[in-house]
Q: What sequence folds into this?
């Protein structure tokens, strides 16, 4: 896919078809993501993929957790909205307004609770001891991963919700205690659910850019 088309086409999909991503496509996606830059080429990431049955097992355990009222307790700390910058808070408010204007607010809640019905779940970890720069590296890795996926026609969403119960992930995926589970990315193929057409707007370039 041509780059401008690719960067515009990637957006978060919140309802997936049942078909998992093939192992050969997963290998291509992860090897392309490995081309991401990192501090002194430290490549701090490890990648765990739950595919097909394993993803179903995790989604089922998550649904039970939600039904039992267990709060999300990810490895990275959660911060209250009020503790974000004013700009970030305004952007998050716009996100909610755009979503609600489409009348898909409730579908959002259901899709998150069901882990987007995703057939393929990728978990990205960093070994302890970890440092803040490795989080930056992992962000670069994540975007490369999602663009590589889209280039193969595979949709994605990075989501806190995918890593909200790290104890379940450690058990099912056999992730060692010395790995910090940072982020989860769902992969697969979008359904025609209207929720998947949601693409929140970005700030104007002049609002984020200073050139002197
Ligand atoms: C760190 C991070 C956490 C996210 N967590 C969630 C989530 O829990 N639920 C969700 O629906 N989307 C989640 N998203 C997706 C964002 O809402 C989405 O990337 C953003 O609104 C921009 O939209 P786009 O990805 O469609 O371009 C998350 C994205 C990031 C980068």
A:
């Amino acid at each position: 896919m041509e780059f401008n088309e690719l960067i515009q086409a990637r957006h978060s999909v919140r309802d997936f078809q049942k078909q998992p991503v093939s192992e050969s496509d997963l290998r291509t996606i992860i090897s392309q993501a490995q081309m991401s830059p990192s501090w002194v080429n430290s490549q701090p990431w490890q990648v765990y993929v739950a595919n097909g049955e394993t993803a179903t097992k995790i989604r089922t355990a998550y649904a039970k957790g939600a039904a039992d009222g267990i709060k999300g307790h990810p490895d990275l700390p959660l911060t209250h909205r009020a503790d974000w910058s004013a700009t970030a808070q305004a952007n998050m408010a716009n996100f909610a307004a755009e979503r609600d204007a489409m009348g898909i607010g409730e579908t959002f809640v259901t899709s998150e609770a069901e882990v987007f019905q995703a057939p393929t779940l990728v978990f990205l970890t960093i070994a302890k001891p970890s440092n803040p720069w490795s989080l930056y590296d992992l962000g670069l890795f994540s975007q490369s991963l999602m663009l590589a996926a889209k280039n193969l026609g595979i949709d994605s969403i990075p989501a806190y919700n995918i890593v909200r119960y790290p104890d379940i992930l450690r058990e099912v995926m056999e992730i060692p205690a010395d790995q910090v589970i940072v982020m989860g990315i769902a992969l697969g193929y979008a359904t025609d659910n209207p929720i998947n057409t949601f693409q929140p707007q970005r700030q104007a370039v002049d609002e984020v850019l200073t050139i002197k």
In short: The chain is about 40% helix and 15% strand.
